[in-house]
């Protein structure tokens, strides 16, 4: 827990570019002691913890645990992902309402593909926090790119194969594919920390994904920053209403 028992709003991204601009906007930033890359500071008057967790499911789970221990009262993961659902394209946003690990295979034990043995078939985010993220994402880009709720499929694979995209769509009704969200979901659910995930679609998870991805990342970082400010604005308004006699 942070000094003074401060509960903070957690913001997590896998890569430095996904959280760099958010971290740049912090007032009085200071690193949280420990092995992971976590910074505490104030964003528009709200205490926040910002973490660059690293790529992949293990890193996401480790960061979720570390952020909870540091005092994160909730965690929002923001960053980029590949589009899976028909009709979604580069720049659209998927806010996860269901999470599965597409590379989990316990079929030898009778579990369906995508289910970690001994774990739920899927994980669901905190509904109130997810609604706030959906609202914030739509305010960031009113009348622009699509913002939808949908299934996010996670695995330790960078998907760049149209056949794999078709499989993800048919098997899981996935809207987006990435490498961390479902691991955050698993860890945060076990820890009792409300969570949500917002993903800006950076590529089509097909043969062009590897070339699309770097070009889009810098533009996505600006929208990650705008989303973070919009989310803490809502928190500040709620706080101020509670303090008003």
Automatic annotation (TrEMBL):
<keyword id="KW-0326">Glycosidase</keyword>
<comment type="pathway">
    <text>Amino-acid biosynthesis; L-methionine biosynthesis via salvage pathway; S-methyl-5-thio-alpha-D-ribose 1-phosphate from S-methyl-5'-thioadenosine (hydrolase route): step 1/2.</text>
</comment>
<dbReference type="GO" id="GO:0008782">
    <property type="term" value="F:adenosylhomocysteine nucleosidase activity"/>
</dbReference>
<dbReference type="Pfam" id="PF01048">
    <property type="entry name" value="PNP_UDP_1"/>
</dbReference>
<dbReference type="GO" id="GO:0019284">
    <property type="term" value="P:L-methionine salvage from S-adenosylmethionine"/>
</dbReference>
<dbReference type="GO" id="GO:0019509">
    <property type="term" value="P:L-methionine salvage from methylthioadenosine"/>
</dbReference>
<keyword id="KW-0028">Amino-acid biosynthesis</keyword>
<dbReference type="GO" id="GO:0009164">
    <property type="term" value="P:nucleoside catabolic process"/>
</dbReference>
<protein>
    <recommendedName>
        <fullName>adenosylhomocysteine nucleosidase</fullName>
        <ecNumber>3.2.2.9</ecNumber>
    </recommendedName>
</protein>
<dbReference type="InterPro" id="IPR035994">
    <property type="entry name" value="Nucleoside_phosphorylase_sf"/>
</dbReference>
<dbReference type="GO" id="GO:0005829">
    <property type="term" value="C:cytosol"/>
</dbReference>
<dbReference type="InterPro" id="IPR010049">
    <property type="entry name" value="MTA_SAH_Nsdase"/>
</dbReference>
<feature type="domain" description="Nucleoside phosphorylase">
    <location>
        <begin position="9"/>
        <end position="232"/>
    </location>
</feature>
<dbReference type="GO" id="GO:0008930">
    <property type="term" value="F:methylthioadenosine nucleosidase activity"/>
</dbReference>
<dbReference type="InterPro" id="IPR000845">
    <property type="entry name" value="Nucleoside_phosphorylase_d"/>
</dbReference>
<keyword id="KW-0378">Hydrolase</keyword>
<keyword id="KW-0486">Methionine biosynthesis</keyword>
């Amino acid at each position: 827990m942070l000094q003074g028992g401060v509960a903070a709003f957690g913001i997590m991204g896998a890569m430095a570019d996904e959280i760099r601009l958010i971290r740049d906007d912090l007032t009085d930033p200071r690193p949280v002691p420990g092995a992971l890359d976590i910074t505490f500071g104030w964003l528009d008057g709200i205490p926040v913890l910002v973490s660059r967790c690293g790529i992949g499911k293990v890193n996401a789970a480790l960061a979720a645990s570390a952020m909870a221990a540091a005092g994160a009262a909730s965690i929002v993961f923001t960053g980029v992902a590949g589009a899976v659902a028909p009709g979604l394209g580069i720049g659209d946003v998927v806010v996860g309402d269901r999470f599965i690990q597409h590379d989990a295979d316990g079929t030898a034990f009778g579990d369906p593909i995508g289910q970690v043995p001994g774990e739920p078939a899927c994980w669901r985010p905190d509904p109130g926090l997810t609604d706030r993220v959906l609202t914030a994402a739509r305010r960031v880009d009113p009348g622009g790119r699509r913002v939808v709720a949908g299934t996010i499929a996670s695995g330790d694979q960078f998907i760049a194969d149209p056949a794999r995209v078709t499989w993800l769509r048919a098997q899981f009704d996935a809207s987006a594919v990435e490498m961390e969200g479902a691991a955050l979901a698993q860890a945060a659910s076990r820890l009792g920390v409300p969570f949500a995930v917002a993903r800006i679609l950076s590529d089509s998870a097909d043969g062009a994904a590897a070339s699309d991805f770097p070009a889009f990342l810098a533009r996505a970082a600006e929208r990650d920053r705008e989303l973070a400010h919009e989310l803490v604005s809502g928190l500040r308004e709620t706080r101020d209403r509670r303090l008003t006699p």
